[in-house]
C-alpha cells in the first residue's frame, strides 16, 4: 500500500513525522513524504531536526503569498504528484491550506484520505480563519477520521460522521516526548541565549502570538498585558519568540522591547521550544500545538483567544481560555504567578491529548484497511 503524506507547515511536520517514521518501518506500506513548501524553511528545519528527508519537495512558497495564490499553486502542484505517484492513501494533518487542498484533491482522485487530528471545531468559520473552514472541508472527503480526543470524535458524530472515526490521541505528544529525551545542539545553544532557564529558583513565562485574527488591536492588547505583568513581576523572565510574519513584530516590539525582563527572540526551533516548555512556569499563547504539548510538561496554559477548538484542555483543567482583553489576561496570569495552589491545580491536571502512542494506532488502523 502506497501512502502519500502531505506536509506544508512546521506544525504539520512535527505532527506527521512520527506517523511517517512508523509507516516507513512497516513492510506492508510504502510511505512517501511530500513537502509543499507552504512554510518552506520552518517546515524543513523540523525535518532536519528529526533526520527525515522529504521524498518530494514542491517548494511552492512565495514572498507575500495570499491564500488565493497559495491555493492555486497547491492545486496545480499536488495534482501532478497524485497523477504521477498514484497513491492508495493520502494522509493530511490538521487544518492548513496544504491539508485542505491535499484532502480535496485526494477525494477527487478517488484515493482514501486519512485526516490526522480530525474533529476539532470552534463552530465559527471566521475563528480561526481559515482553519475552521479548512478542517470542515477535509472532513467531507475523508475516509478515516483520526480524532485526537473523545470530544473531537463526538464533534464528528454530531455532524453525522459515524464511519471510521477513531480516537487515537494527538501525534504531537509522540513527537514532544521523543524530542524531550534528546539533547540537541539547539537546546545547548539556549544555555547561552537564555541562561536563566537553568535556574530552578526562577520563573519563566513563554509567550507566543501569531494568529491572523489577533494581529492588530488584539495583539497590541496582548503585548500591553505582557508588559504590565513584566512590570509587576520584575524577577520573572518573559520569553517572546517573535513570529516571522512582519506584522507580528511591528505590533509587539514597540510595546515590549524596552523591558529588561522581556526577551524578544527569534522563532524557536522545535527542539528549543520543547526545552523552553520543559523549563517554563506558565505559557501565554494563541497557538494550537502548544496547548497540547505544555500539559505533557505540567505547565499551565492561558489561551489568548476568544474561542478554541481545543476545549479538552480547558475541561481537564490544564488550560484556560482568557481572550485578548489586557485586564483579563493580567488577572488570570497574576493568579497563577502569585498563588502556588492555583498553579499546582492546573500544572497537575491530566493531559487529555494522549500518551505518545497515536502513530502506532494510526498505522494499525491503516494496515487493516477498513
Automatic annotation (TrEMBL):
Residues in coiled coil: none
GO molecular function: UDP-N-acetylglucosamine 2-epimerase activity
CDD domains: GTB_UDP-GlcNAc_2-Epimerase
InterPro entries: UDP_GlcNAc_Epimerase_2_dom, WecB-like
Family the UniProt entry places it in: Belongs to the UDP-N-acetylglucosamine 2-epimerase family.
Keyword Glycoprotein: no
Name under which the protein is recorded: UDP-N-acetylglucosamine 2-epimerase (non-hydrolyzing)
Keyword Isomerase annotated: yes
Pfam families named among the record's database cross-references: Epimerase_2
Amino acid at each position: 500500500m502506497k501512502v502519500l503524506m502531505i506536509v506544508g507547515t512546521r506544525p504539520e511536520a512535527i505532527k506527521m513525522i512520527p506517523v511517517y517514521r512508523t509507516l516507513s518501518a512497516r513492510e506492508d506500506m510504502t510511505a512517501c513524504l511530500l513537502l509543499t513548501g507552504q512554510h518552506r524553511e520552518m517546515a524543513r528545519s523540523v525535518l532536519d531536526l528529526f533526520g527525515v528527508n522529504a521524498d518530494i519537495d514542491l517548494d511552492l512558497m512565495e514572498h507575500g503569498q495570499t491564500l488565493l495564490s497559495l491555493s492555486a499553486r497547491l492545486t496545480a502542484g499536488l495534482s501532478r504528484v497524485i497523477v504521477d505517484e498514484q497513491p492508495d492513501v493520502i494522509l493530511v494533518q490538521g487544518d492548513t491550506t496544504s491539508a485542505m487542498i491535499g484532502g480535496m484533491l485526494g477525494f477527487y482522485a478517488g484515493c482514501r484520505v486519512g485526516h490526522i487530528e480530525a474533529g476539532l471545531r470552534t463552530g465559527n468559520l471566521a475563528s480561526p480563519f481559515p482553519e475552521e473552514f479548512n478542517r470542515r472541508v477535509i472532513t467531507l472527503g475523508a475516509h478515516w477520521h483520526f480524532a485526537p480526543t473523545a470530544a473531537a470524535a463526538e464533534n464528528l458524530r454530531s455532524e453525522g460522521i459515524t464511519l471510521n472515526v477513531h480516537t487515537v490521541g494527538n501525534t504531537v505528544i509522540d513527537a514532544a516526548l521523543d524530542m524531550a529525551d534528546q539533547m540537541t545542539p539547539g537546546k545547548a545553544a539556549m544555555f547561552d541565549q537564555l541562561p536563566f532557564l537553568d535556574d530552578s529558583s526562577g520563573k519563566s513565562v513563554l509567550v507566543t502570538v501569531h494568529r491572523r485574527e489577533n494581529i492588530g488591536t488584539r495583539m497590541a492588547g496582548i503585548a500591553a498585558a505582557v508588559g504590565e505583568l513584566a512590570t509587576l513581576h520584575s524577577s520573572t523572565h518573559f520569553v517572546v519568540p517573535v513570529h516571522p510574519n512582519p506584522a507580528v513584530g511591528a505590533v509587539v516590539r514597540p510595546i515590549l522591547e524596552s523591558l529588561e525582563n522581556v526577551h524578544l527572540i527569534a522563532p524557536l526551533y522545535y527542539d528549543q521550544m520543547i526545552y523552553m516548555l520543559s523549563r517554563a512556569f506558565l505559557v501565554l499563547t494563541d497557538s494550537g500545538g502548544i496547548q497540547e504539548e505544555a500539559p505533557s510538561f505540567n505547565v499551565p496554559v492561558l489561551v489568548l483567544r476568544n474561542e478554541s477548538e481545543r476545549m479538552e484542555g480547558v475541561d481537564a483543567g490544564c488550560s484556560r481560555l482568557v481572550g485578548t482583553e489586557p485586564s483579563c489576561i493580567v488577572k488570570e496570569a497574576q493568579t497563577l504567578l502569585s498563588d502556588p495552589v492555583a498553579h499546582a491545580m492546573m500544572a497537575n491536571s491530566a493531559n487529555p491529548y494522549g500518551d505518545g502512542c497515536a502513530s502506532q494506532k494510526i498505522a494499525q488502523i491503516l494496515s487493516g484497511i477498513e
